[in-house]
Write a structure and sequence with these properties.
alpha/beta; 7-stranded mixed beta sheet; 13 strands; globular; binds pyridoxal-5'-phosphate
Length: about 400
């Protein structure tokens, strides 16, 4: 058989090892296994090692006790859709209609999948920045569309606007933006986002914007694309409770935008999961109403954690690249004379007891070449663990 089956396109897009079908293991799993085998501190995976607010956990427990245990409506519990609408108004002045312009999804991941499966197919192009969050390549592969990219270059990972323009074509149906950006930690300013909207308008593309780290920025202001002139009519905005509230395992996300685009995504979501965890939806509805101190607190706590890890990476002799948001910071190993960060990532757990993810796994081959000396570290961990990781990192320069 010479054709590539959809799952194999997924495998190629997500940089699975053994994309020929022999062994579908991501490098994330490989690094996690190495970390477990060596007892290393795992800064590869991007999830917190502390739960979010007790009041939200109690709300979920109460919802279960009160019998909120059957299917929620496909588009989400009314109280959560209302809470998402309230959040969009409170933070950004946006006024989506909770009846027709918001759906609740099984994490941002399902929102991304539903949007892309609804909007693109073979012959279409989906444009993302590169490096890109790994599920983008996989989902675009599943749709059968072509994945095109515009590079984000170290050190600041801001796009070159001319390169961005030349990545658009008449076949670009969706520009899939992630801001704040995983894996780089970049936060895009108004000028970049405005240019994206102008180009999407020129090429009549839909903007799908993944803003799961919207509340996790450090100094830089997060600007939702949907707030920019001319954007709202062609933008689907995606976010998730996982990052904001440190409940990544609950998988409650949402998508909002113009009614006809939301309806298209909802039609697909109906046959992916139909509906998403009822008691968790109820609890997140309560969480979205937490006061401003909560939202500013999560960002400042994370900024402090970023600084601890950043100091450790400096002490390791690495070039530390700026992180303005997300859970992640990147470091360039070239300063230590290392050009293959993927090989180093495989050695690092045994060498110093810390695990990290090589940035090339978030790229196609050309982008992998541009990022071959970069490692991504997660800092969404407890302070003592980060301090220990920083101390271990400081030994790196004497060991390579
Ligand atoms: C950029 C980005 N989008 C989406 C997700 C997935 O979000 P969820 O867990 O809500 O599906 C992640 C998780 O790491 C992410 O980094």
């Amino acid at each position: 058989m010479t054709t590539t089956a959809p799952w194999q396109r997924t495998a190629l897009g997500a940089n699975l090892l053994g994309a020929d079908g022999s062994l579908a293991v991501t490098i994330f799993e490989e690094i996690t296994t190495l970390a477990m085998q060596t007892g290393a501190i795992n800064l590869g995976q991007g999830f917190p090692d502390e739960d979010g607010p007790a009041s939200i956990k109690e709300a979920a427990q109460a919802a279960i006790a009160d019998g909120a245990n059957q299917y929620a409506p496909g588009k989400g519990l009314p109280e959560l859709r209302a809470a998402v609408a309230g959040h969009q108004k409170r933070f950004y002045g946006l006024t989506p209609d909770p009846e027709t312009e918001i759906i609740i999804t099984t994490g941002a991941t399902e929102a991304i999948a539903a949007a892309l499966l609804a909007l693109v197919g073979p012959g279409d192009e989906v444009l993302t920045f590169e490096p890109f969050y790994d599920s983008y390549g996989a989902i675009i592969g599943l749709t059968g569309a072509t994945h095109t990219t515009a590079p984000l270059l170290a050190p600041d990972f801001q796009p070159d606007l001319a390169a961005l323009e030349s990545a658009f074509s008449d076949r670009t149906r969706v520009v899939l933006v992630n801001n704040p950006h995983n894996p780089t930690g970049a936060v895009f300013p108004a000028a970049v986002l405005t240019r994206i909207v102008e180009l999407a308008t020129k090429y009549d593309a839909v903007v799908v914007t993944d803003e799961v780290y919207e509340h996790l920025t450090f100094g830089a202001r997060h600007i939702p694309i949907a707030t920019l002139p001319g954007a709202a009519d062609r933008t689907l905005t995606i976010s998730s409770a996982g990052k904001t509230f440190s409940f990544t395992g609950w998988k409650i996300g949402w998508l909002s935008g113009p009614a006809e685009l939301v309806a298209a995504a909802r039609t697909v979501k109906q046959f992916l999961s139909y509906s998403s965890g009822t008691p968790f939806q109820s609890a997140i509805a309560a969480g979205l109403g937490l006061d401003d101190d909560f939202y500013t607190g999560i960002a400042s706590t994370l900024a402090h954690k970023r600084d601890i890890l950043s100091d450790g990476l400096h002490a390791a002799g690495l070039t530390v690249l700026p992180s303005q948001g997300t859970y992640f910071i990147n470091a360039d190993t070239a300063a230590l004379g290392i050009t293959d960060a993927t090989a180093l990532a495989r050695r690092l757990p045994a060498l110093i007891g810390v695990a990290a993810i090589p940035v090339p796994v978030f790229c196609h081959p050309e982008g992998a070449e541009r990022t071959k000396s970069l490692l991504r570290f997660a800092f969404c961990k407890k302070v003592p663990l980060l301090e220990e990781a920083a101390a271990r990192l400081a030994t790196l320069k004497d060991k390579v």
